[in-house]
């Protein structure tokens, strides 16, 4: 749609494929989504080191995800993002909510094979830097590589933006968030201009909630009845 095209930034200087859409949601939608996240039952949260998370839609599993209904406040965005064509015509059926307090992050990792190779992320409350790394090579033993030597570039992800990563960005590179309270805009931030950032500027993080919206292709249609002879 015209709406989408006007606000869509395809990054030419990052590996395929990154779409960064500033102000994908309004400030009202942002506070509504934050309210819903914090209204969820305490038992919905899993505390990890450096962040806590809520899992919605079911637990992805090699044998198929036993699908659980996604609440309407998230389903709306699953449908909105899917209608942009992010999941090749499929509808997102899985949402991870991550909460990072100032100074928290997530280690460089791959998201693994259980998802359609597209990850879409709405950010709430604070910016962050999403950092990308070359994978650990099989020659690791001969020439140990440090996290710093594998670092490639960062994306500045503003609150209310939508980030879509596909292809090589998803399947080959590792991504992570350094546990920092402040970020400085260097030329390693490849979407500086799309994100409206001033080189040299320092941004202070607050609490960031991210909605990671994906499609899990393999779903179990019915619950297996266990223990039946
Ligand atoms: O918070 C983010 O934007 C990244 C989250 C992430 O990489 C994950 O949950 O796998
Ligand atoms: Fe991830």
From TrEMBL:
The residues covered by the Fe2OG dioxygenase domain are: 91-217
Cofactor list = Fe(2+)
One GO cellular component this record assigns the protein to is: nucleus
Whether Oxidoreductase counts among this entry's keywords is yes
The UniProt entry, under InterPro entries, shows: AlkB-like (IPR027450), AlkB-like_sf (IPR037151), ALKBH6 (IPR032862), Oxoglu/Fe-dep_dioxygenase_dom (IPR005123)
The yes or no answer to whether the keyword Disulfide bond is present is no
Ordered alphabetically, the record's keywords are: Dioxygenase, Iron, Metal-binding, Nucleus, Oxidoreductase
Indicate where this protein resides in the cell.
Nucleus
For this UniProt entry, what is the primary localization, expressed as one broad class?
Answer: nucleus
Q: Which Pfam families match?
A: 2OG-FeII_Oxy_2
Could you cite one Gene Ontology molecular function of this protein? dioxygenase activity
User: What PROSITE patterns would the database entry show?
Assistant: FE2OG_OXY
Would you identify the family this protein belongs to, as annotated? Belongs to the alkB family.
Designated name of the protein: AlkB homolog 6
């Amino acid at each position: 749609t015209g709406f989408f095209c006007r606000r869509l930034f395809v990054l030419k200087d990052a590996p395929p494929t990154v779409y960064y859409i500033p102000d994908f949601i309004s400030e009202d939608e942002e506070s509504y989504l934050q309210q819903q996240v914090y209204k969820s039952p305490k038992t919905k949260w899993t505390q990890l080191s450096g962040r806590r998370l809520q899992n919605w839609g079911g637990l992805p599993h090699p044998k198929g995800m036993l699908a659980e209904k996604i609440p309407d406040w998230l389903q709306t965005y699953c449908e909105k993002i899917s209608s942009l064509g992010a999941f090749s015509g499929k509808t997102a059926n899985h949402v991870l909510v991550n909460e990072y307090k100032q100074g928290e992050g997530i280690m460089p990792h791959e998201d693994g094979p259980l998802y359609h190779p597209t990850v879409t992320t709405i950010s709430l409350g604070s910016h962050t830097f999403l950092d990308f790394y070359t994978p650990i090579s099989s020659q690791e033993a001969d020439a140990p590589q440090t996290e710093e030597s594998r670092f490639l570039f960062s994306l500045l992800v503003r609150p209310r933006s939508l980030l879509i990563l596909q292809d090589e960005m998803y399947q080959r590179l590792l991504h992570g968030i350094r546990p920092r309270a402040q970020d400085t805009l260097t030329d390693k931030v490849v979407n500086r201009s799309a994100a409206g950032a001033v080189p040299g500027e320092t941004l202070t993080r607050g609490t960031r909630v991210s909605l990671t919206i994906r499609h899990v292709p393999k779903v179990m249609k019915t619950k297996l009845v266990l223990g039946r002879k």
